[in-house]
Amino acid sequence: MAEYCFEPKKKEGKNMSNLGLIIGLLPLLLNSTSRAVAVADDYSRNDFPPSFIFGSGTTAYQVEGAAMEDGRTPSIWDTFAHSGDGPGGNGDVTSDEYHKYKEDVKLMVDVGLDAYRFSISWSRLIPNGRGAINPKGLEYYNNLINELISHGIQPHVTLHNFDLPQALEDEYGGWVSPKIIEDFKAYAEVCFREFGDRVLHWTTVNEPNVFAMGGYDMGFVPPQRCSPPFGKTKCSKGNSSTEPYLVVHHCLLAHASAASLYNKNYKDKQHGSVGISIYMFRFVPFTHSKQDAKAVERAYQFLINWILHPLVFGEYPKLMRKNAGSRLPIFTKAESSLVKGSADFIGIIHYQNWHVMDDPQSLMMENRDLVADVGAKMMMLKENVTTPESLQRVIEYLKQVYGNPPTYVYENGLPMKRTSLLEDVPRVEYMHGYIGAVLDALRNGSNVKGYFTWSFLDVFELLDGYHSSYGLFYVDLNDPNLKRYPKLSARWYSNFLKGKATF
Ligand SMILES: *[C@@H]1O[C@H](CO)[C@@H](O)[C@H](O)[C@H]1NC(C)=O
Ligand SMILES: *[C@@H]1O[C@H](CO)[C@@H](O)[C@H](O)[C@H]1NC(C)=O
Ligand SMILES: *[C@@H]1O[C@H](CO)[C@@H](O)[C@H](O)[C@H]1NC(C)=O
């Protein structure tokens, strides 16, 4: 998904003439091994264990395009993008990986990726959300997976990345209904059965914490549910006091049901693993006061432990129960044991620090949403969005608080204006810093098994459309062929992965 709350948007005209110039210069830039990037070249790939996986990722709606082709039906993000409430732009065509996957896999080979993280579009594979499989959808994912495998690239596959089939949203309200659990499980089973002979790394639900907060409390992302006085936008339906909790509850049960099915019917034959990914904020106290330190603890409980605690201990954190009361659903005994231990690994998604300030008043309000239940104001400070140390800290957090489960850093990357120079020096510095932080965490005993940059290509950014991008490759949207151009970061990553001197 990338940045949860990106800095205020400025409308930017596309500055393609500059870009043409840069593209002309690119071969010069890339061939120059003496490029002076201001980072110490103090580690190499050989410092990582041989089994450590380096990859990069995209997601279905953001990269595939062909949104109305070959039997695919809209997801809730298609609906949102076309509603005019979003940042502008949509995924109708975007980078068109649906048609260009062979070319893209070739680029992955050129860079030297071990793995590619992508998601399956549920409404492409099963257009009504349940029932009949779309043969064209099946064929596409088989083709993509085969292309990756035949080039020695591991597929890491996410099943739900904010893109619920609109059909299920319309039929019963999607994730607010417990009906979603069976439908998700059936969809997961199709994926395990059809692709599991080649796919060994499954992520069920991406960022349930942000999905619930953004889509059901603040309501600024699909399905745009919230209730007054909460929410950043006017929502036509929803309940900010209850639905975020309900939705995460259903996400956890859907995840656990799919994982349990995998363990029962597929694991012996396929030997893969099933995990879940979490948007890992690092929370930083706003001041040095005791109150703000306490507020930071509450922020972790409500936004991170919310997901992790049930997965590890089979129940929600006690403090959540205290503050949210009966609005927080309860796991039955059977559900609790289903959820407990149901994640083989945790996907870490890190982009941001949030600063946290105690706000005791919010807990005194009768009518509270998720955010008010935290009893804190949480904000992203522009001057301190994140640091490499922050990634190290969130990896450490999983080790120290949750017994060091296997983790993959599944998303991390730097946004720049889409039309920035191909010579993306700040991104190279960012990657150097954050990969170094992963190495530090690894050396201090963390069970981190892989690092994936966001994103492989410039894609349709869910919260920022085509204004900013994170890709290792620029995609020229004005070119009917959507030609891809390597940025300096692609070359840097490639050199790093191949054990060559980096710039
Ligand atoms: C939200 O749900 C709670 C619990 O059912 C209820 O008390 C409250 O009135 C609802 N709020 C809205 C805005 O519907
Ligand atoms: C930025 O974060 C670092 C820790 O990562 C901290 O030491 C520093 O004080 C922060 N700066 C601000 C302005 O919050
Ligand atoms: C390294 O791990 C130990 C034990 O978990 C922990 O106490 C320490 O804070 C960690 N150091 C860093 C720099 O994260």
Automatic annotation (TrEMBL):
Record carries keyword Magnesium: no
Coiled coil: none
Keyword annotations from UniProtKB, A to Z: Hydrolase
Transmembrane segments: none
Superkingdom: Eukaryota
Family: Belongs to the glycosyl hydrolase 1 family.
Stated name of the protein: Uncharacterized protein
Organism this protein belongs to: Citrullus colocynthis (colocynth)
